[in-house]
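Section 5: illustrative case.
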């Protein structure tokens, strides 16, 4: 990545899908220019109504918040920058979709505090510990499956099934349903990427029907768990009652969708970007491999900074205010570009260097401090840590061996496919 911004700021259009198909280095160059020259740039909204009958006509556009300090400022002031008006997508979601996709992440206080209280009680340390024990088991099993092959698609064989299985196990979904969950969460999180759509599909309709499919699955599961309680998160969520408060069936459904989409794509992409970075920076890999336990304490967060798996979240201005000297008006939409904030040269020394010992590392990959800070951050860190540790021990010379295939998505910084190679080894069972 060239550190000198050489792009014309007027040529940058974050609403154009073509921007999100550019190589990462080009995108990073554009964000460097925005941070330097137009840190709260205005962009018209993409016109999604040309590809979807469900999409409303474009609204009045948005400001792209690209500097770290501004992302932090907006995140910590939900009274000025709210999440509930039209949800956290660029477009205000059509009514039909709000029910499914406007879960906790698209609410404000007092509703958000109430939902987060109930859900956090179900995410008890005991339950998270139990899930964490499962990560090693799942990672070990996935590695066994490919160990003799000497190579595979890292995303589809290792990174994706790990995060998917963890979330599904956590909720108590049987393995027979994992493929459905994988397909639906891909459609929802990467809407617009044709790999996940049938030819001629309306992207928003496809998202909606994927949402219906997941709700149907989870409604059946929670009905079953009412009579057959067990130790899974579904049982905890349907039985959690804090001071007389419990989730309504609609809240339960949208929380499930949020977990499946928020916890699946993001962790998968962190692990895939992690392998890619360790391949591109062999010196950093040597440091990690020499002392995985110690280095993971800083290395995992560096992977999340490096990957920045969520491109942005939206907030809506609640009253006229000023951000970084610029006037914003009630109703303005602001998009917090986490990847840009995570390369902000005024906060990170050598931001384009992958440094597994980086400390401090005030990245905002999980969001900045504020009420919506990622609920699954601890779990995600553990998944990345355990998977890399298992890989570097079991397949010590594993490396990316082909060009990564980027997901074309405005929302998710995804890798769809990444070939890897390693010296074939026997699976543990026959070792
Ligand atoms: C590396 C992996 C992950 C990344 C990069 C990530 C990133 C994020 C980001 C950027 C937000 C929004 C923060 C904001 O608006 O201020 C968020 C929220 C959230 N994440 Fe994650 N996430 C990850 C993994 C997970 C996992 C594993 C789960 C669940 C098991 C999860 C559940 C959630 C939930 C429920 C919210 C909404 C919290 C709220 O609105 O109060 N995430 N995450």
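Designed sequence:
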């Amino acid at each position: 990545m060239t550190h000198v911004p050489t792009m014309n700021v007027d040529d940058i259009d974050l609403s154009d899908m073509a921007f999100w198909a550019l190589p990462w280095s080009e995108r990073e160059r554009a964000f460097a220019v925005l941070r330097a020259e137009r840190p709260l740039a205005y962009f018209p909204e993409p016109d999604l109504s040309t590809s979807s009958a469900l999409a409303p006509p474009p609204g009045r556009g948005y400001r792209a918040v690209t500097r770290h300090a501004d992302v932090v400022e907006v995140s910590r002031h939900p009274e000025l920058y709210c999440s509930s008006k039209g949800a956290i997508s660029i477009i205000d979601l059509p009514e039909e979709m709000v029910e499914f996709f406007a879960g906790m992440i698209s609410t404000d206080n007092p509703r958000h505090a109430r939902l987060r209280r109930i859900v956090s009680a179900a995410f008890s340390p005991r339950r998270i510990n139990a899930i964490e024990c499962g990560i090693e088991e799942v990672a070990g099993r996935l590695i066994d499956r490919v160990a003799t092959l000497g190579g595979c698609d890292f995303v589809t064989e290792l990174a994706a099934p790990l995060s998917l299985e963890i979330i599904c196990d956590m909720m108590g979904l049987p393995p027979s349903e994992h493929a459905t969950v994988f397909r639906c969460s891909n459609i929802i999180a990467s809407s617009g990427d044709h790999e996940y759509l049938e030819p001629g599909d309306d992207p928003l309709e496809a998202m909606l029907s994927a949402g219906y499919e997941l709700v149907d699955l989870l409604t059946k599961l929670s009905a079953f768990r009412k009579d057959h309680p067990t130790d899974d998160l579904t049982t905890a969520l349907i039985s959690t009652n804090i001071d007389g408060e419990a989730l309504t069936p609609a809240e339960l459904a949208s929380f499930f969708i949020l977990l499946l989409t928020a916890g699946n794509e993001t962790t998968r992409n962190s692990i895939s970007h992690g392998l890619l970075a360790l391949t591109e920076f062999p010196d950093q890999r040597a440091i990690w491999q020499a002392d995985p336990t110690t280095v993971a304490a800083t290395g995992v967060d560096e992977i999340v900074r490096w990957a920045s798996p969520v491109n942005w979240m939206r907030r809506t201005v609640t009253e006229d205010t000023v951000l970084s000297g610029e006037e914003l008006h009630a109703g303005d939409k602001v998009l917090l570009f986490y990847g840009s904030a995570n390369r902000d040269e005024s906060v990170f020394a050598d931001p384009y260097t992958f440094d597994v010992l980086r400390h401090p590392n005030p990245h905002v990959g999980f969001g900045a401090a504020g009420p919506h800070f990622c609920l699954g951050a601890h779990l995600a860190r553990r998944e990345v840590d355990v998977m890399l540790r298992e890989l570097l021990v079991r397949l010590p010379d594993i490396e990316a061996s082909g060009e990564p295939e980027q997901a074309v998505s405005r929302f998710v910084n995804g890798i769809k496919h990444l070939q890897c190679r390693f010296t074939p080894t026997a699976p543990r069972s026959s070792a």
